[in-house]
Write a structure and sequence with these properties.
Helix content is about 45%, strand content about 15%. The protein has eleven helices and eight strands. Strands 1-2-3-4-5-6-7-8 form an eight-stranded parallel β-barrel, surrounded by six helices.
Amino acid sequence: MTALSVNINKFALVRNARGANMPDIINISDKCLQYGADGITVHPRPDERHAKFSDLSPLQKLVSKYENKEFNIEGYPSENFIEKIINTKPHQVTLVPDPPGALTSSFGWDCEKNKIFLTDVVKEFHNNQIRVSLFINPSINTLENLDIIDTDRVELYTYYYAHNYSKNKSEAIKSYVEVSKFIENEFPKIEFNAGHDLNLENLEFFLRSITNIKEVSIGHALICDTFEFGLEKTIKKYIEISSKL
């Protein structure tokens, strides 16, 4: 079974558009968890155009009321971000190499170039009992030093898979299978997450092809689906896929 973490950033974007608390993302997150989601994900960026840093503590308190639900915070590990995460103490932090003005996450870490930096950051989170996942490209050429960095998990950046799925799904998944097998063989203690543009059409094939994914983080597509199906039915459609594999 693969856990479903709902990324609520786009709900927060709608809230921020009017400068009021509508929709209330704590209430939305609570409903996601009630409807069966395994966790909540947010990615507070420096400009706070999506989730805000002030959302983190209330979300952590919400998730902590549930058994076996997790709170995952994504972001670039600036000094400010690290401080906020340590103060919040989520179950997991997912480190992404986004520059400050990035529209969305668009590439993974180069673990050779960032070895010292990432090793220090991961150690700091581990010292505060926070699990760490690294956002990575589907390429073994960027994965040197994963054992030195000592991350707990990696999150496979699935944009390329999703973008090419309708053209040739077997070809689209190829590099992801290669990377997952490489990590399994070379760094067997590291576990797998996945996310970015996964949706109701392409999720099942991905999870059937890489069977050891611990968690998928899905936001934009899931929120778009709520326009058609409503939030409860949408959550259950994704859980139906992720829980049967």
